Amino acid sequence: MSLTDLRMALRRRFQLAAGKLRYRTPFGGLWTDRNDAEELLGDKIARGTLMPVDSERLKFWIDHGFVVLEGAVGETIIDQLNRDVDLAWQGANRAIHVEYWRDNVMHIDPISPELKQTAAKLLDLHAFSEAALDATFAPAILHFLTLLFERKPLAFQSLYFERGTQQPMHQDAAYVVVSSRLEMAASWIALEDIQPNTGELEYYVGSHKLRPYLFRGKVKSLPHDMAAGDPDHLRFLAQLHEQAAEMGLERVRFRPKKGDALIWHADLVHGGSQEMDPNSSRKSLVAHYCPIDCEPAYFSTAAHSKKIPHRSGGAYAYQLHVQR
Description:
The protein has helices at residues 3-17, 37-46, 52-64, 75-89, 130-136, 139-149, 231-247; strands at 66-69, 97-102, 105-110, 121-123, 153-161, 185-190, 201-204, 251-253, 261-265, 270-272, 284-291, 308-309, 315-316. The chain is α+β, with helices and mostly antiparallel strands. It has a single domain, classed as Sandwich (Jelly Rolls).
């Protein structure tokens, strides 16, 4: 992190503490979440610090909570990434762990061929595959995140999916916690052309502007001791649809081409379509990011790699799982 970036981050935090910055919600966020985001964007344009395409994408982000970067990741990188995954399932690297559900219980175990049919997701593939790391820090993705964060990003969690998840619509900020709450974004990279009826990623356009939900009337993130079936958690999921309906938000299914990337806001409501051919694939890589001077909450609760510098000027980290 450069001295200029550090000074900028410290100044932002001082201004926030002094009440000089105003955000849409009490939980802060990025400069695009400020009430004067349009003015800030105008200032950047006037200073000539943005290319026209950057200005358009940032305006779209402010209004809609996401952007699509077509062809963000090259085919050569994706093909190598897919080969790395095939080798991993054959047992090439037992250090890779997978998350899967069995009998309504979540398990995290070393990768093994017999788990491939469990709809398991590979955890932190970017720590074991150079191609996955290259995809995570693809120049187009890195550039946009740097504009959002106003400093380089830290990639701290990636998830590889072979199939659609059919995950309920949700907001990442409820589950993926960082030291500066809403200073976070995620990328979803298509590792093949995504077809209909594959459990496509879907989202509510503009849903990053929903009223925040407070678990137990107090906190924005899901409490560690709250079960998935807790009435409060179920209420959280239900009210996302209710608010989206109130605001007349469009629900979109994402059917990108191989190499396209969707970058979304920490509060964009998204999930996996329930319509899915069980024999279909929907190969994708998801990564979560925060500014390089921030850190994920698991840094204080779990074994991890610490921040590893990346040649792009950013950094990455991953969680360490106990080998079984």
